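name: query_chain
kind: protein
chains: 1
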Amino acid sequence: MKNKIYTSAVLVFLFLCFSCNTPKTADNKETGKTAPANTDSAAALLSKKSKDTILSVENHPEKRYDEIGENLWLNESLGELKQGLTIKKVIELLGEPEKKSKLEMDQADGANHQQLNYTKKGIEIDAVEQPGAGIIVSMITIASPCSLKTKKNIGIGSTAEEVKSAYADAIDPAETNADAIIAGSVYGGIIFSLKNNKVQTIFIGAAGE
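structure:
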C-alpha cells in the first residue's frame, strides 16, 4: 500500500514538473497548440508589414472597419466630388474629361462602369450605371496637381500625421504602414498613399472585392 502511494506521488510530482517546464510562446500559450481560427489578427497582419508601421495595434480598440469605411465611402467628398454624383454634374463641375471609356460591364460586380480621366487636373473617376439614377460616381482618385481636399481638410501633400489626426477613429492599424493609411477598409473607405511621409494620392471607394 505504501509503495502504491509513493508511486502515485512520484507520478504527480513528475507531471507537475513537466507542466511547469513546457515551453511557452510569446503570448503565454503552450507550443504545439492549434492557433485560433482567426489567425489574421491585427498583430499578425501588422507583423507582415513594414517596420515603419504608423499606428500601434495594441493601443487601438477593435472596430468594424468595413462599416466605418462604407460610411466614409458614401459621405466623404473631395471638394464637390462625391459618391452618387451624376456624370452630368461632374461635367458641369470639371468640364469634359480628356479620356472617357465606353460603358462596359465589370466582371467583379456585374455592373456597367465607365472611367473619366481628367489628366491635367489629376482626377480619375469610376462611374457606375444605377437603375433609376443613371450613371453616377462610384469611386474617385486624385493626385498632383489636384488641389481638392476631403471634408477633414486633407489633400495631396498633407502629412501622415495630419491624416492620422483627422481620421484617427477610422484608421485600421493592421492595414496601415509607411506607404499607405487606410480609413475604413480596402472594401470601402479612403486610402491615402504616402511617399516621404506625405500624401501622394487619395482614393475614395472600394479597392477590393
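note: The longest helix spans residues 2-20.
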